[in-house]
Write a structure and sequence with these properties.
- The chain is α/β, with parallel strands linked by helices.
- It contains ten helices and ten strands.
- Strands 1, 2, 3, 4, 5, 8, 9 and 10 form an eight-stranded mixed beta sheet that branches. A two-stranded antiparallel sheet has the order 6-7.
- Strand 6 and strand 7 form a beta hairpin.
- Helix 1 crosses helix 10, helix 6 packs across helix 10 and helix 7 crosses helix 8.
- The protein is globular, with a radius of gyration of 19 Å.
Length: 304
């Protein structure tokens, strides 16, 4: 089964005006501090002060399962350093994210909020940009005059201390829980179709669960890929990322006329871990667009 790019884009463009922010988003605020022109890199040390120390054994396990992954601290240090050179700072930069509604996705988001002081939320379940073209256009209008935007997007996946992928320990909860729950539910829905066990129903998709219904539709093209995967839970976020990247790229290309001085797009996989270990990120894209909306630099190699 194939879903055309045009169909995916229509889905998001036609619903953008009806989106509401996912429950639990506490960092979606515009908090730009006028005159704060110091380099964002100067904030890195304070942002990560008090975070768990690196666990060498756990670090190796994460990177064995997700080759190319780096800790959030290493990611922020490299990303912010590169953007400092281009003129991004807390006074002239609007952070924009398309990350899952799960509270664990707030870890990375809040770390970058603490650096740049602001955030515009495009995302919903599984990290898909449900705010669509309408949301991106509104966001672009909020970028400071002669300023920049850093857009971070991607799905997330959990890994336990024992290395189980698709599960994670959560603070205050004894149960080792699914992560990402939305992605796993969509994967199970897809498996029911590819394995022939799905129940056929004439029921129209409920608007009260529109986002999950959309995630299930957007993962349909990856049935064979996931079915053949050595580890379905490890492959799942990468399949979701490929679907999201189509949408984010189209949304950016449609709205790039609203870019002011520059736009950096960082895409990848969030890897959530227990409360006493560092979170990780596998960067898969780091593109820079100039004031005219031209893609002028692939900065991904500098993150490796």
């Amino acid at each position: 089964m194939k879903i055309s790019i045009a169909s995916l884009v229509f889905l998001f463009a036609s619903t953008g005006a009806f989106n509401t922010a996912p429950v639990g988003r506490t960092s979606t605020r515009l908090n730009i501090v006028e005159g704060q022109t110091s380099a964002a890199s100067e904030k890195i040390a304070s942002v990560y002060e008090g975070k768990p120390a690196e666990n060498e054994i756990f670090d190796k396990m994460v990177k064995k399962n997700f080759p190319g992954a780096i800790s959030n601290k290493d990611l922020a240090t490299r990303v912010v350093g590169l953007l400092d050179e281009k003129g991004f700072n807390p006074s002239n930069t609007l952070l924009c994210t398309s990350l899952c509604a799960d509270e664990l996705a707030r870890v990375l988001e809040d770390e970058f909020v603490d650096i740049y002081g602001n955030n515009f939320n495009l995302g919903g379940l599984s990290g898909f940009p449900f705010a669509g073209n309408t949301g991106f256009g509104a966001m672009a209008a909020h970028i400071p005059d002669d300023g920049f935007c850093l857009l971070i997007h991607g799905p997330h996946v959990g890994i336990t201390k024992e290395g189980q992928i698709g599960k994670v320990e959560r603070s205050g909860i004894a149960l080792v829980d699914n992560c990402c729950g939305s992605a796993i539910a969509a994967s199970n829905y897809l498996k029911g179709i590819t394995d022939g066990g799905a129940t056929i129903t004439p029921k129209i998709q409920q608007f009260t669960d529109f986002q999950q219904g959309a995630v299930q539709e957007l993962i349909l093209p990856f049935g064979k890929r996931l079915g053949r995967a050595e580890n379905r839970m490890r492959e799942l976020p990468y399949a979701l990322y490929d679907s999201q990247d189509v949408l984010v790229t189209d949304i950016v290309n449609t709205g790039k006329g609203g870019i002011k001085k520059g736009l950096a797009v960082l895409g990848g996989i969030q890897i959530n871990t227990s409360p006493d270990t560092l979170d990780y990120f596998h960067p898969l894209k780091f593109d820079y667009y100039d004031a005219d909306g031209n893609l002028v630099e692939n900065m991904l190699p500098y993150l490796r």
